[in-house]
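User: Structure please.
Assistant: Input sequence and predicted structure:
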Amino acid sequence: MKFYKSICSATAALFVFLALRLLLTPVAFAASMGLEPSVATSVLLRRAAMFMVGLAVLTFCARSLQDLQARRCVCLSAAVTLLGLACMGTYERLMGTVNASIFIAIGIESVLGLAFLMLLLRRPDKA
């Protein structure tokens, strides 16, 4: 339970950080990834910030869940989201769409995603 709570807390903090960056500095965020800032980019990034807020609230509130099935659902959802982001970041880097700064995001997303996957695959008495 302690590892689960720690991973949920770390993920909530990450999503809050990302939401603030996307919401408050979308142009700088896009530029830092090597993307061409535009009105469309800013609109999409600010909208994506709201998804990050929702995920932050979900993972923060899920920290103290006692129900094993509910925790497993959170783990599955978080693992799919984080590993999906890592895969998309890798793809975009291979396509040359983004610069090497994406590797920081890929690393963090992979570690957290694999941690949630590990929790999901644990025996019920160990979760």
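The CA atoms of residues 1 and 127 lie 6 Å apart.
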